[in-house]
Automatic annotation (TrEMBL):
Organism, as annotated: Stigmatella aurantiaca (strain DW4/3-1)
Top enzyme category: transferase
Alphabetical GO biological process terms: osmosensory signaling via phosphorelay pathway
This protein's name: histidine kinase
Domain Histidine kinase: 601-816
Domain of life: Bacteria
Keywords: Kinase, Membrane, Phosphoprotein, Transferase
C-alpha cells in the first residue's frame, strides 16, 4: 500500500477568507490549493523527478470542472468532468506512474481542498454548515467519479499497453537482425491501433534520417527516402526532440514525402527515438480516416516506440558485438596466418617458459621441436653454436635471456644439422609485457642467413672479377645508378675525365664533368625512361683531362642494366676514342673525292677531241670517192668513238651521282610504252638476230625525264643481252599498278653469283668477275640505272636464281614526288 503524505493541519492562509460556496472557493483558492498539493505530492517517488508543468499537467482544468459540477447544487444545472480524469490518467501512465500513485494524487488533491474549505465553513455558522454538507456530497460524488474514471482508463490503457509491449517483445524474440525485426515491429504497431494505417521508422546517419522500414505505405516511394535533421516533418521531430502532429499530412507543407500525398493521409503523429539523450531515429504513424489521434493512441504509440528503441539499441549492440567478435576472430586468424606463413621463424613462450607457438619456418629451421613444454624440455635439432662455431651455453640462448627481461637484437648463431652442415641464423628476442608491465612471455624471430651470406660472398667475388675486367679493358667503361651516380668506373675512363677512379664513386655526372653534363644527362635519362639502348652515338669534344687540347672523336653505347626479373638497375656506358679511325676515314674520303673529281674532269675534257675525231670520220664517210679501205677505217673510228662517248657519259653520270647530289632529271609528260618500244627498236638494230619482246598491260602515261628513262631501259636491255645466251629472248614487261608503274626486264642467262648480289648496283661492278665482253663498258650501267630510278622517286631490285633467269624490277611513281620540279609539256 502507498502511504499518503500527511497534511500540516496548522497550515492556514494568512487571513481566513469569508465563507464562499465550494465552487467559488475552489476558484478563489486555486493557486493555494495547487501549491499545497504540489508540496505534498512531491513526496511520492514518481513525482519527484517530474518538472512542475508536467506534474501539474491537467490539474488546473480538473479543478475548474470540479467547481462547475459542485455549483450545480445551487444552480440546478447539469455539468460533468467529461474526459479530464481519463486524460490525466493517461498522462500519468505515460510518466510511469503506478495505479496506486495515480489514486494517491487524487486523494491528496481531495485532502487539500477539504482542508482549506473546512476552515472556511467553520467561520460561516450553522446555516453555512448545512449548505456545505450538500456541496460536500456533490463534491465527494464528483471526486469518486473522477477517481473511478481515471482508474478505469488507467487500467484499460495499461492493459492495452502491456499487451502491445508483449507483442513487441515476441516480435523481437529470437532475432537480432534489424532487417528481420523491424518489419515485425511495425506490423505489431499497425495492428494494435485501429485508426493507424501506416507506420514508418527512420534511423539517423550523421545529420540525415533515412527510412529503414515502413508498413502501410508504397514501399517503392518510401525506399531510399531521407531528410536532413531540422528539415521536414521527421527532421523537425529529431531537431526538437519532442513529438509532433499534423492534421492533414497530404497537404501540410512540413510533410515532404510524396507517399503521404498520394495516399491522402490525414493525421500524422511522430515521436523521436531517444537513447542516452541523443536522437537515433524518428517513428511516425498515419491515418487516412482520422484528423487526429486520441490521447490513448498517442500514449500507446509513445510506449511502443520507447520499448522498440530499447530493442533497437539492443539489436544494434548485438550487431556491434557480433561484428566486433567477427573482426576480432578475423584479426586472430589473420595474425595466425601471418605468423604461420612468415618467412621468419617465430617462437613464442609464456612467462613460465613453456613454448606456445612454433611456426612452420621455425620447424623448418629446426630451431625448436616441441610445443607446450618448459625450457628444460626444449629440443634443439643439433647443437647451437656461436658464430665462430663454439657451443652456445644454454643460459645464453636468446629466448631464455628475453624471459629474464633482456631485449636481444642482431643476434647471430649457427646450428649444425644432422648432415654436418652448419647454417647461420640471425634474429631478435624480446620480452612480451601486458599493459600493466607484467611479463607475459617472450618471442624469438629468426631467419636463415646462410644463402644470403653465400650470395653476398659470390657477389663480392663477382664484383672483384668485374673490377679486374674493367681495369684490363682499354675502352672507357662505367656503370651508373638510376640517379646517374658512378657505381663502377675503370681506369681508362678515369684518365679521360682527369680524376682518380675513387673520386668518381658516389658522385653524379654533373659533379664529375659539369661542363659536359647538360649534353649527356638528357641522353642517359632517356635510356632510363624508355629502357632502350642508345648505340653508336658519336660526339666530338676535347677530353676532360685536357679541355684546351685538340678536339677528339668518340663513339658511345649507353644501355640499361637489368636484373633477371627485368628491373632496371642503372646504365652501362662503353666509350671508345675513334679519333684515329676518323682521321683515316677522312683521308680515304679525300682520296676518293679526288679520284672522282679527276675522273669527271678527265671525262669532260676528253669530249672535245673525241667530238673532233667523230666529226672528221663522219665527214670522211660522207665524202664521195673515198676508197673502200679508207671508208672501213673511218667506220671503225666512228664505232670506237661512239663507244668512248658512252663511256665518258657514264663517267659523267657517275660523277654527278657521287659528287653532285644525284643525276638531274627534267620531267615531262610522256608515255612509257611508246618510250620502251622506241628503245627496243634501237636495241634490235644494234643486236641483230636477238629476240626482244614487249608485254604491256594497262595505261602508261606519266611525268618522267624521257631521255633518262630511255637511258635506264637501254642499260637494262644491254645488260640482259650481254649476259644471256644468243638464242634466248629478252622480255620487257610493263605493269600498271595505279599510282605506280613496274618495269621488269628478264633474261634467261646464268644466275648472278650470290656474293655479287649485295653489290650489284655499286659502280665498277660486273655481273661476272673478269668479264671482258666487247660491248661492256666501265661497269657503271646498273649504278646509273639505280641513280635514275632514285632521281624519279623510284627503286630498282634484282632477282636471280638458277633455272629461273635474272629479272631486274624498277618501281616508278606515275607522278613526281612532292617538291620535285615539273616541266611543262604534253602527252604523246
Amino acid at each position: 500500500m502507498l502511504t499518503l503524505p500527511s497534511m500540516d493541519n496548522n497550515k492556514m492562509p494568512a487571513a481566513a477568507p469569508p465563507h464562499l460556496p465550494l465552487g467559488a472557493f475552489i476558484r478563489a483558492q486555486h493557486a493555494q490549493i495547487l501549491k499545497d498539493w504540489e508540496q505534498s505530492v512531491r513526496q511520492l517517488p514518481h513525482a519527484q523527478r517530474l518538472s512542475r508543468p508536467r506534474l501539474l499537467d491537467h490539474l488546473p482544468d480538473l479543478l475548474e470542472r470540479i467547481a462547475n459540477v459542485v455549483e450545480t447544487v445551487h444552480t440546478g444545472g447539469a455539468a460533468s468532468l467529461e474526459d479530464m480524469p481519463e486524460i490525466h490518467a493517461l498522462d500519468r501512465l505515460d510518466s510511469g506512474y503506478d495505479l496506486d500513485e495515480v489514486a494517491a494524487e487524487y486523494a491528496l488533491l481531495r485532502t487539500c481542498i477539504l482542508h482549506f474549505y473546512g476552515d472556511s465553513v467553520k467561520s460561516g455558522g450553522t446555516e453555512s454548515m448545512a449548505l456545505a454538507m450538500r456541496e460536500m456530497v456533490s463534491f465527494n460524488r464528483t471526486f469518486d467519479e473522477a477517481v473511478a474514471a481515471a482508474v478505469s482508463r488507467y487500467a484499460q490503457a495499461r492493459e492495452r499497453t502491456l499487451v502491445a509491449l508483449d507483442r513487441i517483445s515476441e516480435a523481437a524474440l529470437g532475432t537480432e537482425n534489424l532487417d528481420t525485426f523491424l518489419p515485425k515491429l511495425l506490423r505489431v504497431i499497425l495492428e494494435t491501433t485501429e485508426a493507424v494505417d501506416s507506420v514508418t521508422l527512420l534511423l539517423r546517419e550523421d545529420d540525415t534520417l533515412k527510412v529503414r522500414s515502413s508498413a502501410g505505405l508504397d514501399e517503392e516511394a518510401m525506399s531510399g527516402f531521407s531528410v536532413r535533421v531540422g528539415e521536414g516533418f521527421a527532421g523537425q521531430i529529431a531537431a526538437q526532440q519532442r513529438p509532433l502532429e499534423v492534421r492533414s499530412a497530404a497537404t501540410d507543407p512540413l510533410v515532404n514525402s510524396a507517399a503521404f500525398r498520394t495516399r491522402g493521409t490525414r493525421a500524422l503523429y511522430g515521436v523521436p527515438l531517444l537513447y542516452g539523450g541523443e536522437v537515433i531515429g524518428v517513428a511516425h504513424m498515419g491515418s487516412r480516416t482520422a484528423f487526429e489521434f486520441s490521447n490513448e493512441d498517442k500514449l500507446l504509440f509513445r510506449a511502443m516506440v520507447s520499448r522498440a528503441t530499447g530493442l533497437l539499441v539492443q539489436a544494434w549492440l548485438a550487431d556491434s558485438e557480433q561484428a566486433a567478435r567477427a573482426e576480432a576472430e578475423a584479426q586472430k586468424q589473420l595474425l595466425k596466418l601471418v605468423i604461420e606463413q612468415s618467412g621468419e621463424a617465430i617462437i613464442m613462450a609464456d612467462a613460465q617458459g613453456a613454448v606456445r607457438i612454433v611456426n612452420a619456418e621455425a620447424k623448418r629451421q629446426q630451431c625448436c621441436g616441441l610445443k607446450q613444454v618448459g625450457p628444460s624440455e626444449w629440443l634443439i635439432e643439433g647443437p647451437l653454436l656461436t658464430e665462430d662455431e663454439r657451443p652456445l651455453k644454454e643460459e645464453d640462448f636468446f629466448i631464455r635471456r628475453a624471459l629474464q627481461g633482456e631485449l636481444v637484437t642482431d643476434a647471430r648463431w649457427k646450428s649444425r644439422r644432422k648432415d654436418g652442415v652448419a647454417r647461420t641464423f640471425s634474429g631478435t628476442a624480446a620480452p612480451l609485457r601486458r599493459p600493466d608491465g607484467v611479463l607475459a612471455g617472450a618471442v624469438l624471430t629468426a631467419r636463415d642467413e646462410t644463402e644470403r651470406l653465400h650470395r653476398e660472398q659470390e657477389r663480392t667475388e663477382t664484383l672483384a672479377l668485374l673490377d679486374l675486367l674493367l681495369a684490363a679493358i682499354p675502352m672507357d667503361m662505367a656503370f651508373l645508378d638510376r640517379e646517374l651516380r658512378y657505381v663502377r668506373v675503370n681506369e681508362a675512363l678515369a684518365r679521360s675525365n682527369g680524376l682518380p677512379a675513387e673520386a668518381h664513386l658516389g658522385k653524379s655526372v654533373a659533379e664529375v664533368v659539369p661542363e659536359y653534363a647538360s649534353r649527356f644527362e638528357p641522353l642517359l635519362r632517356r635510356v632510363l625512361e624508355t629502357g632502350e639502348a642508345l648505340r653508336g652515338f658519336e660526339f666530338s669534344l676535347a677530353p676532360a683531362n685536357n679541355p684546351s687540347g685538340p678536339v677528339q672523336h668518340w663513339v658511345a653505347d649507353y644501355f640499361p642494366v637489368r636484373t633477371r626479373t627485368g628491373e632496371v638497375l642503372g646504365i652501362g656506358c662503353i666509350i671508345v676514342n675513334i679519333t684515329g679511325r676518323k682521321q683515316q676515314e677522312e683521308r680515304l674520303r679525300q682520296t676518293a673525292e679526288f679520284r672522282e673529281r679527276f675522273m669527271g674532269v678527265v671525262s669532260h675534257d676528253l669530249r672535245n677531241p673525241l667530238n673532233a675525231i667523230l666529226l672528221s670520220a663522219n665527214v670522211l664517210l660522207r665524202t664521195d670517192g673515198v676508197h673502200a679501205n679508207h671508208a672501213k677505217v673511218a667506220r671503225r673510228i666512228v664505232a670506237s668513238g661512239e663507244r668512248m662517248v658512252r663511256m665518258i657519259g657514264e663517267l659523267l653520270d657517275f660523277t654527278r651521282g657521287r659528287l653532285g647530289g644525284g643525276i638531274p632529271v627534267h620531267l615531262h609528260p610522256c608515255h612509257l610504252r611508246q618510250l620502251c618500244r622506241h628503245v627496243l627498236e634501237e636495241l634490235e638494230i644494234s643486236h641483230p638476230g636477238r629476240e626482244l619482246r614487249l608485254n604491256a598491260q594497262g595505261h602508261f602515261p606519266g611525268m618522267w625525264d624521257p631521255d633518262r628513262l630511255a637511258q635506264l631501259l637501254d642499260n637494262l636491255g644491254k645488260n640482259a643481252l650481254d649476259y644471256s645466251p644468243a638464242g634466248t629472248p629478252v622480255d620487257f614487261t610493263l605493269l600498271d599498278c595505279g599510282d605506280t608503274l613496274r618495269i621488269e626486264v628478264h633474261n634467261e642467262g646464268p644466275p648472278i653469283p650470290p656474293a655479287l648480289m649485295p653489290v650489284i648496283f655499286e659502280p665498277f661492278r660486273r655481273a661476272v668477275a673478269g668479264d671482258a665482253h666487247p660491248t661492256s663498258g666501265l661497269g657503271l650501267g646498273l649504278f646509273i640505272v639505280q641513280q635514275i630510278a632514285q632521281a624519279h622517286g623510284g627503286t630498282v631490285s634484282v632477282n636471280s636464281q638458277e633455272g629461273q633467269g635474272t629479272t631486274f624490277t624498277v618501281q616508278l611513281p606515275r607522278h613526281p614526288p612532292v617538291g620535285m620540279p615539273r616541266q611543262p609539256g604534253h602527252l604523246y
